[in-house]
Amino acid sequence: MRNKIVPRLIVDLILLTTFVLSQANLYTGNRFHEWNGTIMLLFIAIHIGINRHWFLAVFKGHYSFRRWLNLLINLTLAGIFIAVLWCAFFISRTVITFDSIEGSKRILFIHATLSCWLLVVAGMHVGLLWKRIHNWLCRLIPTISCDKYIKTIAISLTLPVGGGVYASFSREMASKLFMLPSENYYLPDQTVVTFCLLNLSIFSLYAILTYWLMRLVKEQFFRLS
Fold this sequence. Notes:
By secondary structure, the chain is mostly helical.
């Protein structure tokens, strides 16, 4: 089991790293941005290959609220990523070169907006699957009991939640998600590390909110039944 868990976590960690870096293109430069996106695409393919059993089981078994929500989030995530990739195909200047594309600035704006939605929905995707990730970590660290691990995580959640709320306001995420005017996507006094940490905080915020929402729904369901 350990031999299966470690490669999964490594792939997901690389995928998360490339994903966070992909939004810092003003700091890293377009060439790095496009090649990083290409690597991210490769690891998304590997991630899908590792979790191919999910696709095989889509039309099987009973659908609970959690399973319906998981399907909705996965389909939304896939749709947004395909749209991001479609935009990237037309505005690429390194991996795929186009001399002139009509409306490229509008496509670039849509690409940036969709990337913000990708940050939110990807966080929800991880939050919905956090219990599985938690079980993997407990198996990899047998000296730490699951109960103690949960308490440690619960205490440490205050930092990413606070950071996620701060990052959401400082980057005006609401404006960017709904394509409203915003001028502070990249703040001049930030470094690439700071920007990535803010992105990671926003990602973590939606993961945590989704996880606790599912716990609340589960508790309410058992209370009613």
